[in-house]
Design brief:
alpha/beta, UDP N-Acetylglucosamine Acyltransferase, domain 1, seven-stranded mixed sheet, five-stranded parallel sheet, 27% strand, globular
Length: 187
């Protein structure tokens, strides 16, 4: 390929992490993914915790959700990772209390540096704060956070952090409005 003569790709993922991921992929494929949707949530949480995930009480993770590296996942109380959610947890993904990540959403904590022909790996954490909602098929990019109570609309692409109680949508996201909770609905 033109421009790549004499250059080599440097793999920055340690072999021990690749081995852990290999074992986790086998466990995910044979024990996690085929588990019944609602009946074995505790089983799925047990498997994730066995691989280092920190998951608080009352949280739910559906069987078609894929977590790339469970040891980089932290989840607060009563949060949900729905069907077909992808947690590309190359860096930490921290999910607060009562957070909903809807079906098909993609939490991507890794990318590559396009300013180098070697495309070195760049990892940055993602934080979803308490009461936030990432709607269906939305994308959260590396190093971004979703503020407390914020809503990321369906199919939105988050490339900069979202402020608390904002409702955002689009590609890239823009503010649609402020989220206002009715007084009778507050806890």
């Amino acid at each position: 390929m033109k421009g790549f003569e004499g250059r080599s790709y440097v793999d920055s993922i340690p072999k021990c992490e690749k081995a852990k991921r290999f074992v986790w992929n086998i466990v995910w494929f044979f024990l996690f993914r085929p588990s019944p949707r609602w009946a074995l949530n505790r089983w799925r949480l047990f498997l994730l915790r066995s691989f280092g995930a920190k998951i608080d009480r009352g949280s739910r993770i559906l069987p078609s959700c894929y977590v790339w590296a469970p040891w980089n996942l932290t989840m607060g109380a009563y949060s949900v990772l729905a069907d077909d959610v992808k947690c590309y947890s190359m860096a930490s993904i921290i999910i607060g209390d009562r957070v909903t990540v809807s079906q098909g959403a993609y939490l991507c904590a890794g990318t590559h540096d396009i300013s180098s022909l070697r495309l070195p790996l760049i990892t940055r954490p993602i934080v979803l704060n308490d009461f936030s909602w990432v709607c269906a098929e939305a994308f959260i990019g590396p190093g971004n956070s979703v503020g407390e109570g914020a809503v990321v609309a369906a199919r939105a692409v988050v490339v900069t952090s979202v402020e608390s109680w904002d409702v955002v949508g689009g590609n890239p996201t823009r503010i649609i409005k402020k989220r206002i909770i009715k007084p009778e609905e507050k806890e």
